[in-house]
Amino acid sequence: MARQLSGIPPSTAKGAMASNSSGVDCVFLSCFEHNVLFVASILGQGIRVHHADTVEMADLLLLATGGTVLLADTTFLDGSWEDALAMAGSVHPLVSTLICADPVDREFIASAQERGAFDVLWRPIELDRLRASIWTAHEATVERSLWVAEREHERRSNQHTAPGLCLETVK
User: Fold this and answer.
1) CATH T-level topology, domain 24-158
2) What value does the CA radius of gyration of the chain take, rounded to a whole number of Å?
3) 3-state secondary structure the chain
4) 124 preceded by cis ω (within 30°)?
5) CA angle (138, 87, 68) in 5-degree steps
6) Is residue 81 pLDDT above 80, yes or no?
7) Backbone angles phi, psi at 77, to 5 degrees
8) Alpha-carbon distance 72 to 82, whole Å?
9) Are the beta carbons of 53 and 13 closer than 8 angstroms?
10) Rounded mean pLDDT of 59-64?
11) Are 33 and 5 in contact (CB under 8 A)?
C-alpha cells in the first residue's frame, strides 16, 4: 500500500495540477523503500514524498495527490526510467520527472533529458541539490499548468464570441 512518508497531510486541492502554496507533492517511484524513507526523512517540511513501486501506482498517486514531481529510480518493480517517462509523457504531460541514477548508469541514461526527463540526479545526491531540483521541477510544472490554463481560457473565450460580432474598440 502506498503511503505518504513526510509529516504533512496530503493536498486537498481539486485537480491534478492545482497549485499548493504549502508545499510539493512528489511521487518517488522506487522498489527500494529504504531509499524513499531516507529521502522523505531528509527533505522534511514542504516536500511530501509518496512511495510507489510500480508505474501504475505512480500514476494513481500523481492523480490522487495532485503531484507535480515524479522522482524515479532507474529501475523498479515493473520497469525502468524509460517506462516512467512514457507514462508521465502520455498520462501526466505537465508533471516534471527527475531520474535518480548511479554514475555507472551514465551511458544507459544519457538520453533521459532528450526523452523528456526534467533532470537527472547522480548519486550520491546532495541534500541541497535534491531539494532545489524538486522545487525547480515543481515550479516548472506549475508554470506549464498555468500556460495550458491560459490557452484553454483564451480558446473558450474565442468560442463564445458571436459570429460576425467585432469586438474592436472604435476610436
Assistant:
1) Rossmann fold (3.40.50)
2) 19
3) CCCECCCCCCCCCCCCCCCCCCCEEEEEECCCHHHHHHHHHHHCCCEEEEEECCHHHHHHHHHHHCCCEEEEECEECCEEHHHHHHHHHHHCCCCEEEEEECHHHHHHHCCCCCCCCCEEEECCCCHHHHHHHHHHHHHHHHHHHHHHHHHHHHHHHHHCCCCCCCCCCCC
4) yes
5) 15
6) yes
7) -55, -45
8) 10
9) no
10) 98
11) no
Q: Nearest to residue 40, comparing CAs of 5, 75, 4, 89?
A: 5
Q: Which three cell numbers stand for residue 62?
A: 500523481
Distance separating alpha carbons of residues 159 and 167, to the nearest angstrom: 13
Whose cell is 497531510? That residue is 9
* Percentage of the chain modeled with pLDDT above 70: 81
The cell for 58 is 505512480
Give residue 169's pLDDT.
54
Domain positions in the chain: 24-158
